[in-house]
Amino acid sequence: MKGARPALRYAKAILNLAKEQGNETLVNDNMKLIVDTIAGSSDLETMLKSPVIKAVDKRNVLTALFGDKVDNIVKGLFNLLQENKRMVMLEPIAKQYSIIYDYHKSMQVAKVTTAVALTKELEDKIQAKIVALTGNSASIENIVNPEILGGFILRVGDVQYDASISNQFNELRREFDNSHYIPQI
């Protein structure tokens, strides 16, 4: 991926600065806000990638958009990217920051595939299952896939736990296929 190494260097520098000031969690929340905002607005993404729009104008848009919602470190990042003419790297930097922040805090990301969106009660039960499987808690990312019919598929790192209805049907089908059951007529 083009620009991944510089994005990682920027993200590490921001994390170090945030750790010095003791607000790395706030900056992580800001970075997630930036990623979500860019992902939710194709116009903003296009504007940041456009070579026609000046870096100063891009920074002004970001400052107006995020204003007092973000920490001074993030505002400083806007200025630095404008000076270096690298505004297009804002989203990759924000994503990299979240990844290294999670690593720094020894947090894992658990991907949970369900047939319907998770409720708070279900998240708590899944968090308990994550602790039982891995020994650590993790942040939960919900993926909705109606094809699993019910239950859930949990993936944390290289561990996968499949408690879906479709998996149970497949196991039952394999059991019937492998048995030498001959129906009597």
Automatic annotation (TrEMBL):
Alphabetic keyword roster: ATP synthesis, Cell membrane, CF(1), Hydrogen ion transport, Ion transport, Membrane, Transport
Tell me the SUPFAM superfamilies matching this sequence.
Answer: N-terminal domain of the delta subunit of the F1F0-ATP synthase
Q: Which GO terms describe its molecular function?
A: proton-transporting ATP synthase activity, rotational mechanism
Q: How does it sit in the membrane?
A: Peripheral membrane protein
Q: Where is the signal peptide?
A: none
Q: Look up keyword Iron-sulfur and say if it applies.
A: no
Record localization: Cell membrane; Membrane
The yes or no answer to whether the keyword Nucleus is present is no
Gene Ontology cellular-component terms listed: plasma membrane; proton-transporting ATP synthase complex
InterPro entries xrefs: ATP_synth_OSCP/delta_N_sf, ATPase_OSCP/dsu
Q: What is the role of this chain?
A: This protein is part of the stalk that links CF(0) to CF(1). It either transmits conformational changes from CF(0) to CF(1) or is implicated in proton conduction. F(1)F(0) ATP synthase produces ATP from ADP in the presence of a proton or sodium gradient. F-type ATPases consist of two structural domains, F(1) containing the extramembraneous catalytic core and F(0) containing the membrane proton channel, linked together by a central stalk and a peripheral stalk. During catalysis, ATP synthesis in the catalytic domain of F(1) is coupled via a rotary mechanism of the central stalk subunits to proton translocation.
Similarity section: Belongs to the ATPase delta chain family.
Instruction: Give the protein name, as stated in the record.
Output: ATP synthase subunit delta
Organism (species): Tenacibaculum pelagium
Q: Which gene encodes it?
A: atpH
